[in-house]
Design a protein that fits this description.
six-stranded mixed sheet, 6 helices, alpha/beta, 275 residues
Amino acid sequence: MSWMYLGKEIFKPLNTGWIDENVACVREWVANIFFYHKGDTTIMVDAGYNYDRLAEKMSWLGIDPKSIHHILITHQDTDHVGAVEADSPGLFRNANLYIGEIENRYLIGETRRKVIYHLYKLPQVTIYNEKQLLHDGEVFDIDGVRIECFLVPGHTWGHMVYLIEDKYLFTGDTLWFGADGGYSFISSLAEDNKLAVQSLAELERKLRARGLHPYFITGHTGWTDNFAFAFAHKDKHCSPFKKRVHDPSAPYDAYDESDDTEENAKSGFLKGVGR
């Protein structure tokens, strides 16, 4: 579907590199996958496409695929689970997956994922990894790392976001950052846009109530530590087919990875937006 979004100023992924000393990113075309590193533990957040350069780019960051034993899955779209699908090269075949109980219904065939305003059904995804099913608000521990999950349905019926150590919020396809702040994610890819907007507002409410101001780390448009910027347009969604500028600095063709290099990956921390 890449041709549909060509020149729409929508996708502005991070390049491969480190956000800070704990969080690293690997860019895969228009999407990012992330790694949280603490001590001897590295936790992967989403598994990207079935991508032939994943191991190579991980090596730029000093991360060995064999060290990945835990993968948090925000949702089952193939740009977020490709590296653990049954027909993938199997880099993470022995990793344990963490996924929402509702989202898992896609994986077992109870429901089908629909996009382009429900006009197109995506193929069912097959995954053989061991899975731990999660529920809204659940808090769990991986090797001393505290993780809390929040159900944010809309993009998919069981989409989860993950808050690690109360500092890093991995939002998957819940938030989309334009030049002027955060919106609900791309409208044409949502199961229910109205629900997606409601979920985003509820997420903001929960974070505010607890005085949490994490890094907001998105699947396709970078990161910010500016709370107001992240929720600036929480009542609106990104629409790829309206004639308005979303982010004029976004590349015309975000599938072009020519600027994602090992040299750049090692040249310093990745800059946030809205700062």
